[in-house]
Amino acid sequence: MKKLLISFALLNLLAYAASAGETSSSGNISFDQLLSHITSAPAETAPMPEPAAEKAAFAAATEGRYWITVKAADSHARTRLLEAGFDIVEINKDSVSGIAGPELLAALSSKSFMVLSRVPLAVRAKDFPAADAAYHNFKETVDLLKQMAAANPDIASLFSIGKTTEGRDIWCLRINSSAKGEAASAKPGALYIGNHHAREHLSNEVPLLFAAWLFDHKNDADIKKYINTLDIYIIPMLNADGAEYDIKTGSYQYYRKNMSLNADKSRGVDLNRNYDSWFCEAGASTYPGADTYCGPKAFSEPESQAVKKFIEARKNLKTHISYHSYASEILYPWGGSDADVPNEKDKQVFIKVGDEMGKLTGYLSHKSSEMYVATGDSCDWAYASGGIFAFTFELEGRSFYPGAAILSSAVAKNIKAAVYLLSVTDNPYKVLP
Predict the structure, then answer these.
(1) Sign of CA dihedral 80, 277, 240, 328
(2) What is the mean pLDDT of the chain?
(3) Each residue's pLDDT tens digit, 320-347
């Protein structure tokens, strides 16, 4: 992550733009200029390395891990792999790839899965950028959220929805012209959440920079209408503990889960298998060491508990995007079942809205379980429990660590989709004939 010098420069740029009270058309600092400044951050701004002993401890945690490719001809085979504890990262025509340690390799072999290839993770990691100075770590994310809220006090407020396993606040930026903080609102609500999974750092940048874009364009006619008539919530970094762990030494750890200490002394629960939606059935693992470990019970984790309490307290929420990476796909319920959602009108809304956002991003939109069945999913739960039209965005890229060059295009495309979702939040059913 970048040095504080760059972070302060970004905050100053944003503060200047906000204090001028102008949009990008005025000739002052614009969102495009802000994004350009971010994406041009030099590689030499990489963080100072951690002490050798601490770095060695992190290296030990990844010892013996491999990037493997396993034969899997269809969604049923992919679901079985998830249940065995394999975190599927890439899907090919008749195989899948992802990360596995020695215990998982042995388990796959015992279950008669065919491992087609394996490469030590340390070798594959050399293909990743040495420094992604443009990305925001936890402190930089919080600093930017605070700066945006302070610069726009008439429409913005910032509050914590709860704390992570390690005690970090889970910050939520709210944009609403008449209600602040945790005050109730009758306006239709839209919710954007990033970073359920630690290593998916792009999923923090997209909602964070979407917030910056909204403030930059707050006087545009359509954006002003949305701010005046909707209740908008942005939670860029849900899993701050895992995200910080993944970057702590300056070398990526390929870490997915939160930082809970499990009964067997292993670390972490997959937060997107921890929601009470067909909890720990198909596509989730009961083995604590697995990347797809569902946890000891539904909502066992403080991060998923915080989302549960947040959503249940806001009956006005109508739409939701949960950002992940990477696949260039837009997914909608059900993910935990091969069946379609039972309400035909709702099904058609999911299809129509997903397709429209797919056109804006170039992503493929489809029912989540067409890829594989995975239970305990946040969007399944949000729809089932609150009737929220919830979409999972698998952002673009060729890896979890695609570098800074991808930010400009990924953010620009996803802002269009996020704004489109705002346009239907007042009444999602209006997209139907």
Answers:
(1) positive
(2) 86
(3) 999 999 999 999 999 999 999 999 999 9
In contact, 169 and 160? CB cutoff 8 Å: yes
> What is the model's pLDDT at position 49?
41
Catalytic residue from among 244, 301, 394, 396: 394
Q: CB within 8 A of 212, min separation 6: which ones?
A: 14, 31, 34, 144, 148
- 22 catalytically annotated: no
pLDDT, residue 60, reads: 44
The model carries a pTM of: 0.84
Q: What are the residue ranges in the chain where pLDDT is below 70?
A: 1-34, 36-63, 122-131
Confidence at residue 89, expressed as pLDDT on a 0 to 100 scale: 86
Residue recorded with tokens 């504080």: 4
Residue 115 has which token pair?
A: 């491992």
Spell out the domains of the chain, with CATH numbers in brackets.
Answer: 4-45+133-253+290-431 (3.40.630.10)
Could you give the CA distance from residue 379 to residue 214 in angstroms, rounded to a whole number? 24
How far is residue 284's CA from residue 419's CA, in Å, rounded to a whole number?
33
Q: Is the Cβ–Cβ distance between 242 and 255 less than 8 Å? A: yes
pLDDT given at position 32: 63
In whole angstroms, how far apart are CA 257 and each of 90, 197, 285, 292?
18, 6, 13, 8
Cβ(260)–Cβ(198) below 8 Å: no
Half-sphere exposure of residue 122, counting CA atoms within 13 Å on the CB side?
Answer: 8
